Amino acid sequence: TMKNRYPCEQCGKAFSTKPNLVTHMRIHAGIRNFTCDQCGKSFIQKGNLEAHFLTHSSDKPFKCSQCTKAFKTALQLKKHETVHTGDKPHECTICGRTFREKGTLREHHRIHTGAMPFTCEFCGKSFRFKGILTTHRRQHTGERPYSCLECQHHFTNWPNYNKHMKRKHGIDTSHTKHLNKSPTQAPTQAPTQKIEEDRGAILTPETTSSLQ
């Protein structure tokens, strides 16, 4: 349509103006020009950085009128309020499914377009969702951020950690994800690896020597 006549060649999303498309392309290029001077985290857009600044403050001035929850930004409150109202204003134009948040609709739309905009820098494999790429990347880095406090086992992803806690210790941790993630479990140096081109297997020095 004329309203959104500037499409992204990588994911198919279209924009009404060329500057908006240019800003969007930074997502695929990994360009983050706006950096927080307190924690070093970088962002693609200035508005995202300004919203991020609020995370360094403990103030939560935006209170929900339906429950006791409070939020740092008006946008966070607005998203939360849909939990009470049941509103799902964002509709997929292809299948009609509706969503509470626009970002969730964008992720869903990739199912129809087949877009996989998130690519692993180690092996080149692409993924539809950023979270899946984050989990996949740990195969290369050796990071295991989810730690069992009962037996000191460490896991690369939350589902495996949660399954372990239920089966081995009889503990339901499904509502305590944020309490068990331990970034300190990442190795100080990523294991030496090389990618076997024909199979995509990850080879450590030990497995490499066994194949020789």
TrEMBL record:
Keyword DNA-binding: yes
Entry's localization field: Nucleus
Residue intervals of the C2H2-type domain: 6-33, 34-61, 62-89, 90-117, 118-145, 146-174
A Pfam family: zf-C2H2_2
GO molecular function: chromatin binding; DNA-binding transcription factor activity, RNA polymerase II-specific; sequence-specific DNA binding; zinc ion binding
Gene3D superfamilies: Classic Zinc Finger (3.30.160.60)
Biased segments, Polar residues type: 181-192
Major location category of this protein: nucleus
Region (Disordered) residue spans: 174-212
The name this protein goes by in its record: C2H2-type domain-containing protein
Organism: Bracon brevicornis
